[in-house]
Specification:
The chain has 268 residues and is mostly helical. It has helices at residues 2-23, 29-33, 36-54, 59-82, 88-101, 104-107, 115-133, 149-161, 170-190, 193-213, 218-242, 252-264. The longest helix is centred in the last third of the chain and has 25 residues, at 218-242.
């Protein structure tokens, strides 16, 4: 185990030196001109590619994408080091201290009896940290605006729930969804696109509340449903093609029949 650990440390050093070489005066012109804000979009892309790999069974692809993500993280750290903002050591110190602080049941004297209790304690500690750094008016400052809308909404509602601003049960949320749908119907009759958008947003936000209340990640649930749709629609396109016709030539009835076939064949 110690040998593997030492080998990993050496390989990490090699990657850091590689990045330093790319950023050196005689290094790569493209890498030299990059700024922290330039790398943000790549971080996001690589993170999504990692998530895609996690849903598959291709360990080689996952290994590659994790490497790409690690490279971007180290690249930003190197830029920050060059500007005397912080070093990799500072980053490691920060995360080590945070993990110790947020696991008092491991590194302290707090007793927990369930996974939910661990999650509750984590959130309470996080809120206290936030209070120590910012005012009450900045409760949501740590939630990036760049997050996907569903993920961002779920994080926001999770925070306010810790202050008691939450539904009593799922039944109440389901009732609210019904009310929001009725309001969307009314808005649709007016033809007012802004009002329709608002009411549709209310429905989505309420559904996110329901998913959080049921301990389901809304982003993951929608992603899985989208993939299911793609699998079933791919079946439709394959079957239509086997009939010797183009997809745009297929009738709605034919596509509906093939959709139901896809469902019966277990394409979930």
């Amino acid at each position: 185990m110690k040998k593997i650990y030492n080998e990993n440390i050496e390989k990490l050093k090699d990657l850091i030196l590689l990045i330093k070489k790319l950023r050196a005066p005689d290094g790569c012109p493209w890498d030299r001109q990059q700024k922290k804000e330039d790398i943000g979009k790549y971080i996001l892309e690589e993170a999504y590619e990692v998530i895609d790999c996690l849903t598959q069974s291709d360990s080689q692809a996952l290994k590659e994408e994790l490497g790409d993500l690690l490279f971007q993280i180290l690249f930003i750290t190197e830029i920050s080091t060059e500007s005397d903002l912080f070093s990799l050591g500072d980053v490691l110190d920060e995360i080590n201290e945070k993990m110790i602080r947020r696991h008092p049941h491991i590194f302290g004297n707090i007793k927990v009896t369930s996974v939910q209790k661990v999650k509750d304690n984590w959130q309470k500690i996080k809120i206290q940290e936030h209070k120590n750094k910012k005012s009450e008016n900045d409760l949501f400052a740590d939630i990036p605006r760049s997050l996907p809308a569903l993920k961002r909404a779920q994080k926001i509602t999770s925070i306010v729930s810790t202050y008691g601003f939450d539904w009593k049960d799922a039944k109440g949320i389901l009732k609210k969804i019904g009310e929001e749908i009725q309001e969307l119907h009314a808005a649709a009759k007016t033809g007012n696109s802004l009002k329709i958008e608002e009411e549709l947003g209310d429905i989505l936000f309420t559904v996110v509340n329901l998913s959080r209340f049921l301990s389901i990640d809304a982003e993951t649930a929608l992603s899985k449903t989208t993939e299911k749709f793609l699998r079933r629609f791919s079946y439709i396109t394959e079957q239509v093609s086997s009939l010797g016709i183009k997809l745009e030539e297929a009738t709605p009835a034919q596509m509906e029949t093939l959709w139901n076939e896809a469902k019966t064949k277990g394409l979930k």
